[in-house]
Design a protein that fits this description.
The complex is a heterodimer of chains A (267) and B (288). Chain A is built from ten helices and twelve strands. With 267 residues, chain A is an alpha/beta fold. Chain B has one domain: MetI-like fold (Orthogonal Bundle), CATH 1.10.3720.10. Chain B is built from eleven helices and two strands, in the order ααββααααααααα. In chain B, α1 packs across α11. The chains are: A alpha/beta (267), B mainly alpha (288).
Amino acid sequence: MTEYNLNGQTCRGDKIKAKNLNFYYGSFQALRDINLDIPGCAITAIIGPSGCGKSSFLRLLNRMNDLIYGSRIEGTIELDGKNIFDKEVDVVDLRKNVGMVFQKPNPFPISIFDNIAFGPKQHGKKSKIELEEIVENSLKKAALWDEVKDKLGQSALALSGGQQQRLCIARVLSVEPQVILMDEPCSALDPMATLKIEDLMRTLAKNYTIIIVTHNMQQAARVSDTTAFFMMEPDRAGSLVEYGLTSEIFTNPKDKRTEDYITGRFG
Amino acid sequence: MTRYFTDKLAKYIVFISGFTAVVILLLIALFILREGLPAFSEIGVFDFIFGNVWRPGIDQYGILSMIVGSIAVTIVSMIMAVPLGIACAILLAEVAPSKVRNILRPAVELLVGIPSVVYGLVGLVLLVPIVSNIGGSGFSILTASIVLMVMVLPTIISISEDSIRAIPASYREGALALGATKWQTIKGVILPAAKSGIGAGVVLGMGRAIGETMAMIMVIGNSIAFPNSLLDAARTLTGNIALEINYATGTHESALFATGVVLFVFILLLNSVATVFLKRGSNAQRLG
């Protein structure tokens, strides 16, 4: 699967390529032999039952698992043809390029403005005018500007859950990433807030590569262009069962296990 | 019936026990106030606090130089202890691998257990000669401040470390995921989030510093003259009481109690500030 016709344009499925990827927490194998090509102008959903390693996979893409003591990686993940586990890859640059939105909204306990300005500041942007511009643009892109433009100095913790999550998305956008990883971004939100985030994702997909882990199959079907189905093997290692266009996975799955899962027979 | 009876009994016992502490505090406050009152009325509050001369022999009771002595050792020791303590808390909470922490943490806690007279002894034998090389007799505000610094470090370290540890891991992950380095994460997110807890640790440390007596008496020189430099000897409020109460009578004795009242007010203020800090911290965390 190397070419897609998505969002009215043909794109090649190799923005991110996982090759023979194995991942261990100590002696426990969490992922086995993952081979996955993720297209560059689309939303890719990763679905699967709890414990199938989908979050572990997502967290490999910006090397957040580096923080876990005793974790070990075999194989490669290429971003634009370059292995992100290479020694010469600067993990700070990688994370700037591959942003992440977490399951629970995690704004910093500082003002809305400072939340957005934090990232750009760390990457050397100091001038106030420049920062103001970045904050405004990021909030506009995250469809939050109109709601907060009069209270940028207020604590971000005073926002509602849905607003906090959009703030976190704006925070990611502020450092101009190419890829945005989302780890069940709506699981802590109500349906209205979820809808807003999903609309936002569709808008962002024009300019960003988005990979979303979700428990919610309707959500995967609604927002994503391609879907990867992960499952746990008998030894509890996660592996990729099926991968393809979302429309095909949900209407015409090739693997029996995929069909069972999306029809709700387990998971 | 009996079930409810025990329930009630337990409630009253807990209430009474709890109130005992408060009542004792109140009684102490009332007692020193009562004993100090004659001095305040004979000398005058203003003359007592802002008077420069302490000479019980000729009925001169001004404690300004001791207030200055107490505040000076507190401030100078905090200037040294705060950066050191916060750095150590960061090391323990964020940087050190667990093996190092398992050695460091008990060592820090052990510092609390050393009696203050031992700190005084070490200061007397080791520090006084070193400081005297810089100038003066060695018995000085500087010497006392260095000893105090070591004594307040554990308070600052352990409260700061606890408040840094209480910061949710999601803040850390959020910052790192934006491409912040570890230090940028600590400086930009973790320390601001923990600042009220750290503030409380610093203020409680100050309370400990201003109340310290024994170690101060041993290294500060106890001079009643007004100190003009860090190398001058001085006397603290606590030291003043401890040194003279044994032979004081009449107005002199009352003046020492009045010194205690001033000290009491200082510590009350510091503790109130610490409470405000801690409350603000817990509010911020509840919102998060």
